[in-house]
Amino acid sequence: MKVDLYLTCVNDAMFPRTGQATVRLLERLGCEVRFNPCQTCCGQMHMNTGYREDALVLARKFVREYEHAEAVVMPSGSCAAMVRELYPQAAQWAGDDELLRGVQALESRIFELSEFLVDRLGVTDVGAYYPHRVTYHPTCHAARMLHVGDRPLQLLRNVRGMTLLELEGAEECCGFGGTFAVKNADVSAAMLADKTRHIQDTGAEACTAGDNSCLLHIGGGLHRLRSGVRTVHLAEILASTEEEVFA
Amino acid sequence: MSGLHPKAPFPKAAEASVNQPQLRANLRKVTHTIRAKRAAVVAELPYWEQLRQLGAATKDDSLVNLSDRLLELERNVQARGGQVHWARDAAEAREIVARIALAHGERELIKVKSITSDEIELNQALEEHGIHAIETDLAELIVQLSHDTPSHILVPAIHRNRAEIQALFNAELPGEGGLSDNPQDLAAAARRYLRHKFLTTRMAVSGANFAVAETGTVCVVESEGNGRMCLTLPEVLVSIMGIEKVLDTWEDIAVFMETLPRSSTAERMNPYNSFWSGVTEGDGPQEFHLILLDNGRTHVLADEFGRQTLRCIRCSACLNVCPVYERAGGHAYGSVYPGPIGSILTPQLLGMHDKNANSLPFASSLCGACYEVCPVEINIPQVLIYLRNEGNAHKGPNAESLAMGAARVAMSEGWRWEGALRLARLGQGPLVRQGEISWLPGMLAGWTEVRDLPALPREGFREWWKAREGSRTVDANTQAGPPDIVQDAQNRESPPANVQEGGHPPAGQHGQEGEDHA
């Protein structure tokens, strides 16, 4: 199957390992991975900060560039949710029928990574090896907008050598929320304090999630606390094998 | 809380409240307890999702037919001996209540818990007329006696603990002084005080949870029974109702009798459900006034997308699950409507013209927990996003809008974005120490107050991909710049976006691409 990797702007700028891991993982599972270098950003930051017109420019660009794709895989629940949930709504707000039709035609081919692995490829054991103690934070948009449910956990439970530790208050937001983290820094920090405390309480070496934007936030807090706990994207765990360690 | 107008922007108000340990502890305990209880009683109903849909559809139907429903309600209330008043705004509603009280020579009245009355700042206005309003809901009484303001729709004194209430009652309730902090003793003291008021006061004011147009019936649901006292014992009853509360038929009310108690107090049914239609000779109040309040609601109604906000039945489930509310508390929202619903209702009621209120739609991480529990399916996260746009539309160009515009320009073409990333990697140098950034200027300072930021990697994904593709395909073009776009143009059926978009990439690049296509 031909798969278009939509890296997302955060990974593009900050987390090349996540992109590399996603490519390796998908290729290992028999996919032909393509990367369109014209890609930039889905527009979520603009949309959620109240700059709809800017976001729509990026939405139209996305739909134009991926309308013929067989499957678009994103290592981010938030960006997949943006395309599937908010593009249609924004198109309606703007009265842009062409964009609406375009998104509706494309919607079923947009996948968050765990959805793609479990639903489209039908695998829950990807042959990964990761000998560490890990806790999993379900990110809000993957959980509540995409309803990925326990797909990431199904994948993680099959990782050999790994100890998966349960996180208290896992479903609670980490306090990132894009520009919320800077606009409402105090409340965001209070939310982050609870999240990092729960993560530390698990005794894990690493916290994983399907979204590097949330992990950027959680990891930034853990690092500031000098907690010694690191963050690692789900893709990097799933791509890791005895031969090649990604994170 | 007095009224709708926040005195400060949300971030500033929240800065104070997140640092109050007692408040944080109270909020955490109460919200987590009620969250778990709600989840348990909702799980009892396998058809819960259908109830949510039905509730939303029922409210939507009422809203699009609102003028007809209200006129029908008016006719039927009048036909049963009630009087109906229309109030365009808070001031008109306050004057109507004061006029009725003064006409009867009343200097004291009892109140059923009503956020609508707080919205119009009724108590303060009545005091100016020399009329004292006594709150009879236990939590509202606590708030009133301490000259405080409610911080939760349903649990107005959520920010108080029993020690504080003990001290308050001992100081303020007539004849008390030796009360322990035992909740039963405290409730009994309030009961002694309120019983006397119920039996001696001749006028009551209430809000309304619903009204049924077909019979002119008004409904109040409650847990304590104080409401029932106020609605049945006095001679004169005045009910203030937001115009969005009207429903068509009794059948319409049924769904909310299931969803409201489970969502709000996590009960299967409210202990007290009072319904009355006009007046009945020899039974209950002999004079009934219904005040239909607009106060910005028609403005909300006029907006096709924002309108869903008016479905709200004030259950407060969204407050109890909200991680922002849990940390900031109700007072930070500066309005009688706190939490996620307040963040969309308050600015809209104020016509999106209040600067402080327009900060409320940003008081959310958009985690979506509120939408998940809303019994009338208000898509609060989407309305928040919608209102962020509406609010920004009222502002002129500013640092943020310029930064966003610049980001959009950089992101509108792959090659520009790639260039921007290269520049950022070069430019970050002075900020990086041991691979981390611990201080950022200006708008981004909020981030580095409590978080570090990893430095941008020296080599991004694109460089890795390029090198990898280069080693796979022997192609002279990949060595020419900018090779990534060239590569892509060859691999794809459709030309890359920057050609279609009619942007302005450097001429050399454009030419290069054209040649490749040829």
TrEMBL record, chain A:
Q: Which residues cross the membrane?
A: none
Q: Which residues form the Cysteine-rich domain?
A: 4-83, 134-218
Under the heading Pfam families, the entry gives: CCG (PF02754)
Q: What is the protein name given in its UniProt record? A: Fe-S oxidoreductase
- Read off the lineage from the record: Bacteria, Thermotogati, Deinococcota, Deinococci, Deinococcales
Automatic annotation (TrEMBL), chain B:
| Region listing for Disordered, in residue ranges | 471-518
Keyword check for Zinc-finger: no
Outline the extent of the LUD domain: 72-293
**Stretches assigned to the 4Fe-4S ferredoxin-type domain:** 310-378
Q: Identify the InterPro entries for this entry.
A: 4Fe4S_Fe-S-bd, 4Fe4S_Fe_S_CS, FTHF_cligase-like_sf, Helical_ferredxn, LUD_dom, LutB/LldF, LutB_C, NagB/RpiA_transferase-like
The Lactate utilization protein B C-terminal domain covers 391-469
Q: Which UniProt keywords apply?
A: 4Fe-4S, Electron transport, Iron, Iron-sulfur, Metal-binding, Repeat, Transport
Please tell me whether the keyword Translocase is annotated for this protein.
no
Tell me the protein's name.
Iron-sulfur cluster binding protein
Lineage start: Bacteria, Thermotogati, Deinococcota, Deinococci, Deinococcales
